[in-house]
Specification:
single chain; mainly beta; eight-stranded antiparallel sheet; two-stranded antiparallel ribbon
Length: about 180
């Protein structure tokens, strides 16, 4: 005689923690994207090598409408980045407040060589943090610059309703999937 196990009861509202409050996403203007880019010093460059997509963190500078980076001539970035499509991303996340922003720059990367009367010292210095000689300079020439901001959810102070310490949503904010 075979017995079938009893079904597990569904969690009740009292035993299930409430999901975190959700915020709204909004698009940044191109100007706002450049402002965020200009404030940073570390971002991530994405390119493709023979094994597929690669993303590496590196120091950068913004100048002349370009993203400037420096690397060693023997580095994989120096081997695969010249004359290729690439993407560059910077972001900031506040995990406590569930807010943040992200900027994505897409374009083509070029190894920058000094022209007549120009020296590498005339270019923006990304000042790489790792030790060693990193004199190969690249500029990412943007074709698109986009960004998004995750705003904090619209919450009001607790009104005494609900569990102690729970977040009380503003009356105009839907309570969740059931209220839609």
């Amino acid at each position: 005689m075979s017995t079938t196990p009893a079904p597990t009861p569904a969690p009740t509202a009292a035993s299930t923690p409430a999901p975190p409050a959700r915020g709204a996403l909004s698009e940044m203007t191109t100007e706002q994207c450049w402002e965020h880019l200009a404030r940073g010093t570390v971002g991530r460059m994405a390119y493709v090598d023979r094994d597929g997509p690669v993303i590496v963190p590196l120091n950068y500078r913004v100048a002349e409408g370009r993203i400037w980076v420096r690397t060693a001539s023997y580095d994989q970035l120096a081997i695969h980045l010249p004359h290729q499509q690439a993407a560059f991303e910077v972001d900031h996340v506040d995990e406590h407040a569930h807010t943040g922003w992200s900027v994505l720059v897409r374009g083509h990367a070029e190894h920058v060589v000094a022209g007549p009367g120009e020296t590498p010292g005339d270019w923006p210095d990304p000042a790489p943090w790792p030790e060693g000689l990193r004199w190969m300079t690249f500029a990412l020439f943007p074709t698109t610059v986009t960004g998004r901001v995750l705003h904090q959810a619209d919450v009001s102070p607790a009104t005494g309703q609900g569990r102690p310490g729970s977040i009380q949503r503003h009356p105009a904010t839907p309570a969740g999937p059931a209220s839609r």
